[in-house]
Design brief:
This protein is α/β, with parallel strands linked by helices. The chain contains 11 helices and 9 strands. The longest helix has 19 residues. The radius of gyration is 19 Å and the shape is globular. The structure holds N-carbamoyl-L-aspartate.
Length: about 300
């Protein structure tokens, strides 16, 4: 039985196969409409979510399966003091696969060790968010063809932004990918990503503070929200929250074919005027999230169509 805790749980070949499957699903939706007729997905969300939970549920429904779960910790027995390990043991009796989001780093891993069904990490604190990465990879591959040779700028809260951590780990395995890490000093990438991933693998990267300086060289600009819920005090958040605002003026500095991605939700970091720019790909990205989660469910349940 396989779980998904981090994008590193899949080899590059397995990732490529999963993305191929997602693209086939996109093109042949009806072929997959009943392949999970007798399956159930549990969504155990101890932290707020719109896209991740609903796209998982939509994915299972598109495959003909059913969904059950909870969307806040206080509506589950966690409010009575039940451990994640006990919850998953019980949920294993009700469902065939589960997606879990939790504010604590490592919670999904703890769950996977007690589980008799595949567990998908749908975000664990400020650590990892592998299914957002699958979404990001599918978006880039579908809109740009390949990863090789791309210069990818990641901008905003690189410290607490779990989507950034997972995406760098995944992309660092593709040849010729270059990163430009754009953040204020206080929100720089954690050292475990810098040292264990970027330095160790001799990846080409630079760290800069000004988006205006970085944008002209980028093929992909991945914007992120400042992660308010992970700050120790509100004053620091308020000081940081509008550090970057991508607007039409900054877009004038970018390449004609640069793509703007964002895992969403957006707060202020992308001005709504950018939405009509053909380079804005963040809402298309949300759609790709459904196909890739369909592919992931089939892969972990070992269903071949
Ligand atoms: C992200 C998350 O939960 O980490 N959202 C998402 O799943 N699309 C990004 C964020 O909350 O900023």
């Amino acid at each position: 039985m396989r779980h998904l805790m981090s994008p590193m749980d899949f080899s590059v070949e397995e990732l490529d196969r999963l993305l191929d499957l997602a693209q086939d699903i996109e093109q042949n939706r009806s072929r997959y409409a009943h392949v999970c007729d007798d399956k159930r997905l549990a969504t155990l969300f101890y932290e707020p979510s719109t896209r991740t939970r609903l796209s998982f549920e939509a994915a299972m429904m598109n495959l003909g399966g059913k969904v059950l779960g909870f969307s806040t910790a206080d509506s589950s027995s966690a409010a009575k003091g039940e451990s994640v390990a006990d919850t998953i043991r019980v949920v294993s009796c009700y469902a065939d696969i589960c997606a879990m989001r939790h504010p604590k780093e490592g919670a999904a891993l703890v769950a996977s060790m007690a589980s008799s069904i595949p567990v998908i990490n749908a975000g664990d604190g400020g650590h990892q968010h592998p299914t957002q990465t699958l979404t990001d990879l599918l978006t880039i591959r579908s809109l740009r063809g390949e990863f090789k040779g791309l210069t990818i700028g990641l901008c905003g809260d690189l410290k607490f932004g779990r989507t950034v951590h997972s995406l760098i780990e995944a992309l660092a395995r593709y040849e010729g990918v270059r990163f430009v890490l754009i953040s204020p000093e206080e929100l720089r990438i954690p050292s475990y990503i810098r040292e264990d991933v970027l330095d160790k693998k001799h990846i080409d990267y630079t760290e800069v503070e000004r988006l205006e300086d970085a944008i002209p060289a980028l093929d992909i600009l991945y914007m992120t929200r400042v992660q308010r819920e992970r700050f120790f005090n509100e004053e620091d958040y308020v000081r940081m929250k509008d550090f970057y605002i991508l607007d039409e003026t900054k877009m004038l500095l970018a390449k004609k074919e640069m793509l703007v991605l964002h895992p969403l939700p957006r707060v202020n970091e992308i001005s709504v005027e950018v939405d009509k720019d053909p380079r804005a790909a963040y809402f298309r990205q949300a759609q790709y999230g459904v196909y890739v989660r369909m592919a992931l469910i089939l892969t972990l349940l070992e269903i071949n169509v």
